Amino acid sequence: MAGIYIGSTSGFSGKNMVVMGLGLKLQKDSVSVGYMKPVGAMPAEIEGTAWDEDAYFVQDVLGLKNDAEALTPVLVTQDFKVKAFSGQCGDLMGDIKAAYEKVSAGHDVTLVAGSGSMYSGKYCNVDGVSVAKELGLKVIIIDRFQEELKYDYLMVMKEALGENLVGVILNDIPPSFMDEVETMLRPCLERMGVRVLGVIPKDPLMGAIKVSDLAERLGGKVISAHNKADKVVENFLIGTMQVENFMTHFRKNKNSAVIVGGDRSDVQLVALEGNCPCLVLTGNLYPNDIILTRSEVLEVPIVIVRDDTYSVAKKMETILSRHKLRDVIKIRQGAQLVSANIDYEFIKKSIGI
Fold first, then answer.
1. Of the CATH numbers 1.10.357.10, 3.90.1100.10, 3.40.1390.20, 3.30.56.10, which one belongs to the domain with range 209-322?
2. Which of 135, 237, 273, 292 makes a 20 to 30 Å CA pair with 342?
């Protein structure tokens, strides 16, 4: 009975994408797949039961039916933190081992998803390194590009995990950095004994979000073209500059929401006529009738938010970098990215299947 722990160097690095992509690929090859997330940091009540939201979703995609306690034996609620910080955790590792035995029974391989980074949960001894060692799991670590890659961290993981480290996946790599990854970082990591299992290129669709979801996350509301609130936003532009300068940037950034003050009708009109996916108007200022009419005619939704432009831009940055895979189209795209860019055969060989 094989098991793989899929962890990462930081939160929001693509663990769910890799788990689902790898799991669906294995299932397609007639491999029986189990799944669990030992430590859940996203508690949510679903149909009267406390689950980890991500684990519940991934299990559903993989077609599995474990109960909440087996799927995520350690759920990090506020009550849990109070007990943990006061040294009243109990035998958490024992709970995890018992749950792993239950969810892995009858499966060829069990995918075990990490939470946060490989050291998240150290305060109560349920960090990724400890869990993987205790369960005797092979480990794959994802490092997502965020200004740079955490190559030092990956080398430390090799020291911490030894032969149990199957390798690493470098995720969300922009085209401008790809050459450096292939000519410098990959050879360097592999010289240090860290096998690079795959390099997944940046895909705008994976960070995209529907206008309706964006409005909800920003604490705003859609006030026009409601029937087009399922349009997808991949990026954003801030419309605080002069119209001429804004037009130059706008032409280069399609599928970008435009964040602009409610009193800047000049920029709003340019964005609408340029068919942006949506306008986000800040300061709780409503547009004039001309803008509203053009929005309806051109079918470009307008979202009104209370915050100032700078605050909204910071929120947008966080939302687009941390938006979850929930749409079918994104799950398919994520699975395709994983399947096309990782050394699937080496992973299978490393776990003996």
1. 3.40.1390.20
2. 135
